[in-house]
């Protein structure tokens, strides 16, 4: 069996998968909110002890003995980690490591501790014969230490450290038949950030963390409507993209100018990111957009993204090729957790 933890800033999700012959099935799948009283929620004041306690509570509810789990996969997420494809001169491993360390320092905020890197060979660069393509992941020693401390304090032994974008790519590759040409785009709209990933069988990998997501939408509602955080969360998931329309309940005919909201800001950042990708990969094109994450299921959000960007959109279904006997309101919010768990099986 493979155990995975998706440790977010709002909720924590655990996925337990097992494989029998060629069939992968979900043994356990659950989430827990870190803060019970949402009116007291403050993302800036979340402590490591709160997160560890929530992981313990989640493990207990699933009757999982943390000390007996030997193959835990968890994820470093957000701006604390950078994952990108790089093209670099083919050289011996010892020289390659030094070159990658210099490259890595350009892409992750340093905190006074040394940069920690890992890389995966993709293959020869098709455009420059003396170069190779690598997937480079960078974080810092302190970020690794903080993450490991959270796991240890919750009773788990730290295992494999992955990243959200790679977990999403692994899930997409396992669950769908990727076309040989063009790229797919994943938008994982979480609570603290939106992870955008461009991924295809024969296209350049790219990912970016956009600092607009569920928390920013709720905070905008708190400020504009002078309501409490808990009510903002409830209204966001009830009314969806119409939550910013103050005239939703007004039946009188009025002439109004479309209101610009934080959702427009999110679309602008997505559009800017995709334009940057296209400039660097002039022959690339996008096949399909997949939505995932807890905030992606806001009513109307998928249509809003499709219309704003003029793209085909569907929800990333982590159960597309995985057996699970229960039904879920929003299976896409478990995409990262299941993508992490798949790494322990495949």
* Structural class label: alpha/beta
- Helicity level, as a percent range? 25-40%
Termini, distance in Å?
11 Å
In total, the number of domains comes to: 1
In CATH terms, the superfamily is ATPase, nucleotide binding domain
The overall pLDDT, averaged over residues, is 91
What order do the strands of the largest sheet run in, or round the barrel if closed?
3-2-1-4-8
Describe this structure in words.
The chain is of the alpha/beta class. It has a single domain, classed as Nucleotidyltransferase, domain 5, CATH 3.30.420. It has helices at 48-61, 93-104, 141-153, 164-175, 214-225, 229-239, 262-280, 301-309, 335-343; strands at residues 2-7, 11-20, 23-33, 72-76, 82-89, 115-124, 131-140, 160-163, 183-189, 194-199, 206-210, 286-292, 313-315. A hairpin with a 6-residue loop joins strand 10 (194-199) and strand 11. The longest helix is centred in the last third of the chain and has 19 residues, at 262-280. The N and C termini lie close together (11 Å).
Keywords:
single chain, 346 residues, alpha/beta, Nucleotidyltransferase, domain 5, 5-stranded mixed beta sheet
Itemize the secondary structure elements and their pairings.
Layout: E1 2-7, E2 11-20, E3 23-33, H1 48-61, E4 72-76, E5 82-89, H2 93-104, E6 115-124, E7 131-140, H3 141-153, E8 160-163, H4 164-175, E9 183-189, E10 194-199, E11 206-210, H5 214-225, H6 229-239, H7 262-280, E12 286-292, H8 301-309, E13 313-315, H9 335-343
Parallel strand pairs: 1-4, 4-8, 9-12, 12-13
Antiparallel strand pairs: 1-2, 2-3, 5-7, 6-7, 9-10, 10-11
């Amino acid at each position: 069996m493979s155990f995975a933890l998706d440790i977010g800033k709002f909720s924590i999700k655990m996925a337990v998968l097992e494989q029998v012959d060629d069939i992968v099935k979900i043994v356990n799948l659950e989430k827990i909110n870190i803060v019970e009283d949402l009116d007291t929620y403050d993302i800036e004041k979340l402590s490591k002890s709160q997160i560890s306690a929530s992981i313990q509570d989640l493990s207990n509810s699933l009757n999982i003995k943390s000390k007996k789990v030997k193959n835990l996969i968890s994820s470093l997420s957000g701006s604390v980690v950078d994952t990108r494809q790089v093209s670099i001169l083919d050289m011996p491993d010892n020289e390659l490591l030094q070159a990658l360390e210099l490259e890595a320092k350009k892409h992750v905020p340093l905190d006074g501790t040394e940069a920690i890197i890992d890389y995966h060979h993709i293959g020869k660069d098709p455009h420059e014969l003396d170069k190779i393509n690598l997937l480079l992941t960078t974080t810092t020693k302190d970020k690794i230490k903080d993450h490991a401390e959270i796991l240890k304090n919750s009773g788990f032994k730290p295992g494999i450290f992955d990243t959200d974008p790679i977990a999403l790519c692994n899930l997409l590759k396992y669950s769908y038949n990727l076309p040989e040409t063009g790229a797919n785009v994943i938008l994982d709209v979480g609570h603290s950030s939106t992870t955008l990933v461009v991924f295809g069988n024969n296209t350049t990998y790219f990912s970016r963390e956009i600092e607009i997501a569920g928390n920013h939408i709720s905070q905008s509602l708190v400020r504009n409507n002078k309501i409490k955080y808990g009510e903002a969360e409830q209204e966001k998931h009830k009314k969806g993209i119409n939550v910013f329309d103050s005239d939703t309940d007004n039946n009188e005919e009025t002439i109004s100018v479309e209101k610009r909201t934080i959702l427009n800001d999110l679309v602008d950042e997505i559009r800017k990111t995709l334009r940057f990708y296209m400039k660097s990969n002039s022959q690339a094109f996008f096949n399909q957009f997949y939505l995932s994450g807890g905030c992606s299921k806001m009513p109307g959000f998928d249509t809003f993204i499709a219309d704003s960007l003029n793209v085909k959109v569907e929800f990333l279904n982590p159960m597309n090729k995985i057996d699970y006997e229960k039904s879920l309101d929003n299976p896409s919010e478990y995409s990262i957790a299941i993508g992490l768990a798949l790494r322990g099986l495949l």
